[in-house]
Design a protein that fits this description.
126 residues, 2 domains, 5 helices, globular
């Protein structure tokens, strides 16, 4: 289950936010000032100069964890650019520690031809 939303220019909500804010957008555009995301924690120059990138995160509705939930993957877009959530789960579901899980995800992403960004992964065992 996904508890977040990608902040990319493939998301109609992000496109509308840019257009309503008066930021230039071209149909099919995938980057804002070189970034593949439209919301970021870093990249202070873009935010301080009001260039379309903001820090406001997506906040999901609360989700009650159940007995079948075994771990949570928190990762940067560097991981998600290389695999889907289900692929990540399938890759690590049989490992026995969060450290091994995170290392496996990072290693897999680093060896992907799709890897073009930094990668941060945290796995929380439940």
């Amino acid at each position: 289950m996904f508890l977040s939303s990608d902040h990319k220019l493939t998301d109609p909500g992000e496109i509308n936010r840019l257009k309503e804010g008066g930021f230039p957008y071209t149909e099919g555009q995938t980057r804002i000032n070189g970034l593949a995301v439209s919301r970021a924690l870093g990249d202070h120059f873009l935010k301080q100069n009001n260039l379309g990138v903001i820090v406001d995160p997506f906040v999901s509705e609360p989700f009650k964890l159940g007995a079948s939930d075994s771990f949570i993957i928190i990762a940067s877009d560097g991981l998600w650019d290389t695999m889907t959530g289900q692929e990540a789960v399938d890759l690590i579901k049989d490992l026995d520690s969060p450290e091994k899980m995170a290392r496996k995800l990072v290693g897999s992403a680093l060896h992907s031809s799709k890897c073009t960004d930094n990668i941060t992964v945290i796995v929380i065992n439940l």
